[in-house]
């Protein structure tokens, strides 16, 4: 903004301060400095640029120095007075800007918390979302990345991911943030490329962290649902020790279904796997054996390598499971029951948490 467009109000009392301070060689008084700071705050709130504001101060100082009345004034004293006045003005300007940034950050944080937990009126939330580039009338999907460390807004990892997405998808209506130590990306539900790109960037930024992507859901409430699906996918992956770095909630729907009736699942786990607690070393090594056996498609050699066992040792364990439970992992009729029970044990943290 040109200096001529800046109202003279922001120079109120400036020439008088220069005249008095430079004539006597004194520094500006506390009241004079505070008056400059107050004007700087007002100018920042009004949206004027600091560069233009400093320019009009220097222009006014030159005009005063050229006045015949000021000819006897020491140039050094005048320069010192200008420096103090402009510095105080800039301090007030920056203080107002910092306050505005903090208020904006607080508003953004509050919006994100409300968005991901659905704690606000959905209509009002949709209005607030437009301020942050989201149109909640359409569907959105949420991706969540979790690393070894907890991340907050402004940390190196979320900044790097946000900058990468902004550079590539500046006009796509994407929100990148953090929540409970995790990186979060909210993107339009029909733009899988955005979420895939976020997953790659977040995996790298979190030093190999895991990323889960919820299903697209419509409306403001859909963001909450997609976010919770992503969190559940991360939880399932940890409990079941799933290996993929990127998980999609749509590919894991069987696990919430299995865990929906907790009591029925607990009964299945105890009735099927309970006898394994009689084994030397407890049930955990044998459950780990079953898990590896099923994960490798019931190929004994591959399961043995995964467990660092010989095929003979693995076969012995499977026979032991058969004798204790009465179910044979090699028989298709028994395999489904055992595999479902193993999944249930992982989901319910059994036998670490006995029922």
UniProtKB/TrEMBL annotation:
<dbReference type="InterPro" id="IPR041522">
    <property type="entry name" value="CdaR_GGDEF"/>
</dbReference>
<dbReference type="Pfam" id="PF17853">
    <property type="entry name" value="GGDEF_2"/>
</dbReference>
<dbReference type="InterPro" id="IPR025736">
    <property type="entry name" value="PucR_C-HTH_dom"/>
</dbReference>
<comment type="similarity">
    <text>Belongs to the CdaR family.</text>
</comment>
<dbReference type="Pfam" id="PF13556">
    <property type="entry name" value="HTH_30"/>
</dbReference>
<feature type="domain" description="CdaR GGDEF-like">
    <location>
        <begin position="118"/>
        <end position="236"/>
    </location>
</feature>
<dbReference type="InterPro" id="IPR042070">
    <property type="entry name" value="PucR_C-HTH_sf"/>
</dbReference>
<feature type="domain" description="PucR C-terminal helix-turn-helix">
    <location>
        <begin position="286"/>
        <end position="342"/>
    </location>
</feature>
<protein>
    <submittedName>
        <fullName>Regulator</fullName>
    </submittedName>
</protein>
<dbReference type="InterPro" id="IPR051448">
    <property type="entry name" value="CdaR-like_regulators"/>
</dbReference>
């Amino acid at each position: 903004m040109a200096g001529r467009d800046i109202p003279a109000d922001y120079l109120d009392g400036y020439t008088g301060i220069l005249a008095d301070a430079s004539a006597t060689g004194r520094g500006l008084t506390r009241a004079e400095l505070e008056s400059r700071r107050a004007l700087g705050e007002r100018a920042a709130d009004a949206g004027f640029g600091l560069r233009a504001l400093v320019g009009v101060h220097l222009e006014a100082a030159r005009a005063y120095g050229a006045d015949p009345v000021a000819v006897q004034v020491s140039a050094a004293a005048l320069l010192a007075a200008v420096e103090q006045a402009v510095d105080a003005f800039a301090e007030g300007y920056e203080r107002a800007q910092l306050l505005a940034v903090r208020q904006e950050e607080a508003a953004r944080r509050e919006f994100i918390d409300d968005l991901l937990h659905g704690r606000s009126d959905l209509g009002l939330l949709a209005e607030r979302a437009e301020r942050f580039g989201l149109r909640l009338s359409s569907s959105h999907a949420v991706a969540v990345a979790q690393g070894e460390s907890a991340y907050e807004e402004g940390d190196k990892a979320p900044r790097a991911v946000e900058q990468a997405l902004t550079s590539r998808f500046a006009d796509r209506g994407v929100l990148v943030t953090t929540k409970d130590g995790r990186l979060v990306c909210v993107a339009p539900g029909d733009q899988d490329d955005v979420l895939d790109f976020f997953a790659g960037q977040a995996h790298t930024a979190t030093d190999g962290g895991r990323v889960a992507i919820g299903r697209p859901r419509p409306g403001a409430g859909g963001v909450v649902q997609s976010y919770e699906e992503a969190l559940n996918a991360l939880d399932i992956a940890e409990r079941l020790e799933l290996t993929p770095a990127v998980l999609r909630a749509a590919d894991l729907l069987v696990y919430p279904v299995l865990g929906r009736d907790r009591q029925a699942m607990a009964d299945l786990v105890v009735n099927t796997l309970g006898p394994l607690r009689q084994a030397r070393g407890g049930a955990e090594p044998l459950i780990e054996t079953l898990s590896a056996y099923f994960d490798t498609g019931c190929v004994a050699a591959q399961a043995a390598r995964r467990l660092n066992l010989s095929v003979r040792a693995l076969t012995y364990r499977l026979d032991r499971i058969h004798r204790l439970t009465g179910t044979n992992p090699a028989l298709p009729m028994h395999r489904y029951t055992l595999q479902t029970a193993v999944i249930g044990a992982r989901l319910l943290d059994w036998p670490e948490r006995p029922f």
